[in-house]
Amino acid sequence: MPVINKLKRFVDSHGSLHTGRGMVTGVIALTLACLCFLGVMAFHFPEYLTTPELRKSYDVALMRQLLFWSLVVAGALSLVNLVFRRAPWLAASAFALVLVSALLGGHQVEVDPNFPDHTPYIGLDWFILDLLGSALIFIFIEKLFGLRKDQPVFRPEWQTDFQHFIVNHMLIGFMLLATNLLVHKLFGWAASDGIRGWVAALPLWVALPLIILVADLVQYWTHRAYHEVPLLWRLHAVHHSAKHMDWMAGSRQHVIEILITRTLVLAPIFTLGFSKDVIDAYIIVVGFQAVFNHANVSVRLGPLRHLIVTPNFHHWHHSQDQEALDRNYAAHYAFLDHLFGTAVKSDREWPAQYGVLGDYVPDGFWKQVKFPFVWKG
Q1: Do residues 53 and 26 lie in contact, with contact meaning Cβ atoms separated by under 8 Å?
Q2: How many CB atoms lie within 10 A of CB 82?
């Protein structure tokens, strides 16, 4: 079918979207329409497609309103483009998905809350909300404070990073189950009720910087090991293979690396007994920094850049420049690299080029999943 072929060619391509031809509004409409369709599916099958931890804190009425207005915006944009014959193949695809979503019940789908606990699930709701929120926030920030202003949203290899984004979000249930099991099995012996009670009673303004410091100390040495131990570098090289920095680049991680890192970082958090409120606040900080520090934004923060990790600090870590190799390991507190002697020292403000030196990691999600096991280096 011509429309499907055009969509496939578009998804396989990269570069700037031409304005005035319905491409920008068409992409927005199609993206919203796809997310709306997935949202309707999540309403129909919440036991299999939603995350229990998120499910408990939903404002269902708010989710329905978000779905409704997303359908309205997607439908209106695609209809206008159809009327004015602007990228009609794109507009027709979006409008068809809006119609299908509406026919399936749209925002009015009734949800039966009576389903068994511990049902196997994929994190479709987490994927929808995180993609929508991250795209709205970080694309706007990148356009407003862009470092490389000529870098398009759909830059080269965006498809690979988007596939990593999808898989890492969909597998959130498996990740939570696996990391919790590993932490309890491997580190449960170290938990002390006295210490855990004292840590849990700490006020948020003390506990939050402390949990970030504890996590970042583990993150620093784990990250350093990924660079200095050849077997671990096989995994971490996948993350470093991104040749462009933006809000999506941080998603490029091998699933085994994610499991190892999250298990080791969560171990002291569990052992020390931080309260749920503190852990929830820490997760928000981690989630923001993980995206922001890879983003295509020109932010340095003056002297504060020696204290906390900024995009400038982390961009150097991804650089191929000689002075940046195996440097800037910290995820949150930049002073750790200065303390341990691994901070980048350069006369230039920003690195020149990103990626693995030698460019030996293949592009493509499945090729990168296999890479640590087939690389002959």
Answers
A1: no
A2: 18
Question: pLDDT tens string for the chain (377 positions)?
Answer: 677 888 889 899 999 988 888 999 999 999 999 999 999 999 999 999 999 888 888 888 999 999 999 999 999 999 999 999 999 999 999 999 999 999 999 999 998 777 777 788 999 999 999 999 999 999 999 999 999 999 999 999 999 999 999 999 999 878 888 888 888 888 877 777 888 999 999 999 999 999 999 999 999 999 999 999 999 999 999 999 999 999 999 999 999 999 999 999 999 999 999 999 999 999 999 999 999 999 999 988 888 989 999 999 999 999 999 999 999 999 999 999 999 999 999 989 999 999 999 999 999 999 999 999 999 97
Class of residue 237 by CB neighbours under 10 A (exposed 0-12, middle 13-18, buried 19+) = buried
Max Cα-Cα span within the chain: 69
Residue whose pair of structure tokens reads 């693995």 in the numeric block = 356
Angle at alpha carbon of residue 85, lines to 84 and 91, rounded to 5°: 105
| 326 residue type, one letter | D
User: Dihedral of the CA atoms 153, 155, 158, 161 (nearest 10)?
Assistant: -90
Nearest Cα to Cα of residue 238 among 312, 164, 288: 164
Q: Is 35:128 a contact under the CB 8 Å cutoff?
A: yes
Q: Does residue 197 contact residue 284 with C-beta atoms inside 8 Å? A: no
- Pair 338, 291: CB distance under 8 Å: no
DSSP characters over 326-353: T----SS-THHHHHHT-----SSSS-S-
Q: Is 0.90 surpassed by the pTM of this model?
A: yes
